[in-house]
User: What shape does this take?
Amino acid sequence: MQAPDMATQWMKLWLYDWGGANVDLFLSIQRTLADGWIWLPEFLSAVGSYWGAPAVVVLFLVWGHMSVRHAAIPLRVSLGRFVLGLPLSFAAAALTKTLFALPRPFVLLGDSVYRAASAPDSRYTMPSGHAVYIGVLTASLWPVLGRTGRIGMLLFAMAVGWSRIVLGAHFPVDVIAGFALGWACVALVGPWARRVARSLPLAGVVR
Assistant: This one.
């Protein structure tokens, strides 16, 4: 029993704690923002919340309706990826949080590092739910965005991830894991997205 326990501790130390760098980076990022600017990460967290998923679906539908017919096809597929990838990624995130049961930063470091106005929606920290959602959104939109749109989407994703760390809700590894999980789930459902897209009301019009 001792050997497996030692292996588990070793994996946690280097794969999650990064030999202490995960906490050090968390504290460094937290110190980049004065308390008077706390509204900024709170705003970014609100905009990047998974509660905005229905609005994203509506925007997809409007965008597809306004597009020329040849542009509506990839939009249908992207919407299919989003609709299929989001529930899969959230189920995977919930399972991961339960399996690893890693505590939130303020549990480990004290309430002094917690700056969010509202309590977290779950006890455990890895992966970040916001990062999972943004990972799904970014991966879904990626094929239909140009260079400028992709750069903007990456900057937005980084800003949302930064906000979760600054608010004290997640460690950096939680955010990275969330992005990776969201992207992976979208890639996984890719083969089915085109089939589902045929049944979605996003026909597009010729202008």
In short: Residues 202-207 have pLDDT under 50 and may be disordered. The radius of gyration is 19 Å. The chain has nine helices and no strands. The first helix runs from residue 2 to 16.
